[in-house]
């Protein structure tokens, strides 16, 4: 397939996967929610809407591809087989890798996450129906074999095994990362509400979810807790409530200081990855000190959320952490550049 044909196929898929009009897809989403309690219908719909809007839009795909002239080179390149080990922390989290491999003209050999085994295979099947020429580009397998390169996403622990097994191949291996937010105390309710979306969307399980706050010394948490109370509905979710109750009881028994509002627990901790239903924070004396610490820990941080212009490096505005576009590469590694330069 040519580059325009691949883009047209992806765009066509985006027009076919709206659960309001695709009853089979809606049923698969219900099955997924039963299989994995964290993947509620609302979370799946949010992820699917983002995929349609950001990853399967023809104009956005053409603009993205224009930055890589080699994709449209007339001389045929021998397609490679790229093994994909997909994560399962949020619904359809591996879709960007799939789109990237396909757009590059390579074939994807896919190891699904056991947490999200239903919807993505259907999307690939539907892609094959609307554009049969795409069928050779995707293969779902139980075990990766005969691949030329690897893109694997997992935990810090699993990444060590990935390095051992796949280190001799061209690879991208991703580890645990989290988003952090820097507050100055001047944020209004709207900014705090948008920050809440960065914290609570997908139950905070995504690598782009804010799990740690940097706040100035003497920061008043009451306005933040008042706004975050809007997410108290999460207490109706059994898994979230169990985590909240467990950590609340543990902190109380240990007589540790913390803030809470019934929706989330805030406590001081130097770690970046907070527990479920929790949010860590640390204080700073000046923004320069906060920026220095963030720079020193950049290998653990996926992105930084704050008001534009607050810090002297690229950041994301409040409310946009879980709105990645095609060029928002995980861990800052340009996946498409990696794929277009495979030997």
From TrEMBL:
Keywords: NADP. It comes from the Bacteria. InterPro entries: Ald_DH/histidinol_DH, CoA_reduct_LuxC. Pfam families: LuxC. SUPFAM superfamilies: ALDH-like. GO terms for biological process: bioluminescence. GO terms for molecular function: acyl-CoA dehydrogenase activity. Transmembrane segments: none annotated. This is Acyl-CoA reductase LuxC.
């Amino acid at each position: 397939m040519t580059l325009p044909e691949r883009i047209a196929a992806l765009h066509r898929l985006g027009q076919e996967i709206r659960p309001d009009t695709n009853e089979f897809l809606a049923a698969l989403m219900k099955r997924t929610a039963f299989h994995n309690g964290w993947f509620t219908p609302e979370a799946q719909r949010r992820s699917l809407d983002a995929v349609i809007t950001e990853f399967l839009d023809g104009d956005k795909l053409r603009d993205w591809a224009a930055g890589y002239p080699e994709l449209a080179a007339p001389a045929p390149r021998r397609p490679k087989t790229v093994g994909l080990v997909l994560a399962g922390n949020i619904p359809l989290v591996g879709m960007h890798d799939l789109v990237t491999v396909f757009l590059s003209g390579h074939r994807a050999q896919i190891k699904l996450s056991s947490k999200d085994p239903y919807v993505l295979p259907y999307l690939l099947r539907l892609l094959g129906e609307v554009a049969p020429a795409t069928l050779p580009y995707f293969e779902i397998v139980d075990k990766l074999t005969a691949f030329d390169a690897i893109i694997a996403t997992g935990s810090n622990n699993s990444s060590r095994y990935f390095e051992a097994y796949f280190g001799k191949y061209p690879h991208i291996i991703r580890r645990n990362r989290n988003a952090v937010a820097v507050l100055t105390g001047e944020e209004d309710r709207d900014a705090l509400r948008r920050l809440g979306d960065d914290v609570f969307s997908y139950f905070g399980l995504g690598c782009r979810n804010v799990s740690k706050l940097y706040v100035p010394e003497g920061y008043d948490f009451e306005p933040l807790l008042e706004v975050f109370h809007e997410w108290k509905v999460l207490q109706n979710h059994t898994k979230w409530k169990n985590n909240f109750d467990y950590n609340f009881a543990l902190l109380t028994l240990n007589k540790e200081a913390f803030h809470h509002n019934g929706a989330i627990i805030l406590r001081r901790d130097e770690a970046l990855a907070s527990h479920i239903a929790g949010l860590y924070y640390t204080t700073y004396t000046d923004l320069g000190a906060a920026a220095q610490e963030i720079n020193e820990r950049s290998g653990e941080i996926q992105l930084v959320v704050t008001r534009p212009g607050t810090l002297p490096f690229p950041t994301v505005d409040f409310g946009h952490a879980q709105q990645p576009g095609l060029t928002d590469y995980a861990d800052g590694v340009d996946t498409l550049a990696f794929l277009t330069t495979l030997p």
